Amino acid sequence: GAFGIVYKGELSSSNSRTVVAVKKLDKLANDGENEFKTEASVIARTHHKNLVRLVGFCDEGPEKKLLVYEFMSHGSLADFLFSQSRQQWNKRIRIAYGVARGISYLHEECSTQIIHCDIKPQNILLDDSFEARISDFGLAKLLMKGQTRTLTGIRGTRGYVAPEWFRNTAVTAKVDVYSYGIVLLETICCRKCMDIAMENEEEILLIEWVYDCIHSRTLHKLVKDDEEALSDMKQLEKLVKVAIWCIQEDPNVRPSMRRVVHMLEGVVEIPMPPFPN
């Protein structure tokens, strides 16, 4: 994982055994020692069906900072989306909605707002029922001071990083909205946001290809050979429009995650978005 090594473990009691994921944290901030228990307590108080639940933690000095999470049997959204076989459309849609609701909860419904700062398919796990579960939330504050931005690039997730990370401006919850927009496009198309293996040059950068398709009214190209998606074009167009709103360059133009959920659920109308620069 981005914040340290993850081990598969087991919690045993007199009458049961529970499989867990144990994350050994490294790279804590200088004041991370003091913050660890506070942040772990904040994480432990979050309860939502689209978040990975923290079962407990261990704090025995600088070298033994452990977070114990429930184990997710179906791996990550990255494994699910980028495998050889295209996954079911309805299953992908449910995952996309679940991720939006989970981020909205972190932003709007926690006692302390949690900005994830690293939303990407590798940090979205799938449970026994293929429900999306966001992991690694609440950990950004525990990173070494001044490294949150550089580490985001080093982790190889630049495609998901909002432009304001590189402008030395205040980072807000809108960075997660941007990242969600990219993840939503990848979920729709079952491909990575940048893929140099694409035969057609115009398809290498997913954002540009999506915009070309929506304006030339050829959205069907995004889900070629996906019969379920091709028979659900109204939903496809809605999802693409939501994603483009999320990836607007100006964070003030991006909707909040609560509004994104309302867009997805059909509570509010979705006008045609402007093209991000």
At CATH level 2, the architecture of the largest domain is Orthogonal Bundle
The mean pLDDT is: 87
The largest sheet has its strands arranged as 1-2-4-3
CA-CA gap between termini: 32 Å
Secondary structure: number of strands: 6
Fraction in beta strands: 5-15%
- The named CATH superfamily of the largest domain: Transferase(Phosphotransferase) domain 1
Task: Please tell me how large the radius of gyration is.
Answer: 19 Å
CATH topology of the largest domain: Transferase(Phosphotransferase), domain 1
Provide the helix percentage: 25-40%
Principal-axis shape equals globular
What is the helix/strand order? Answer: EEHEEHHEEHHHHHH
Question: What structural category characterises the helix and strand content?
Answer: alpha+beta
Main pleated sheet: 4 strands, antiparallel
The low-pLDDT segments are 143-156
Q: How many helical stretches?
A: 9
CATH class of the largest domain: Mainly Alpha
Q: How many domain regions?
A: 2
Description:
This protein has 277 residues and is α+β, with helices and mostly antiparallel strands. It folds into 2 domains: 4-70, Phosphorylase Kinase, domain 1 (2-Layer Sandwich), CATH 3.30.200; 75-265, Transferase(Phosphotransferase) domain 1 (Transferase(Phosphotransferase), domain 1, Orthogonal Bundle). Helix content is 35%, strand content 13%. It has 9 helices and 6 strands. It has helices spanning 32-44, 77-81, 89-108, 148-154, 174-189, 206-215, 227-230, 233-246, 257-265, and strands spanning 4-12, 17-25, 54-59, 65-70, 124-126, 132-134. The strands form 2 sheets. Strands 1-2-4-3 form a 4-stranded antiparallel sheet, covered by helices on one side. Strands 5-6 form a two-stranded antiparallel sheet. The longest helix is centred in the middle third of the chain and has 20 residues, at 89-108. It is globular and about 60 Å long. The model is unreliable at 143-156 (pLDDT under 50).
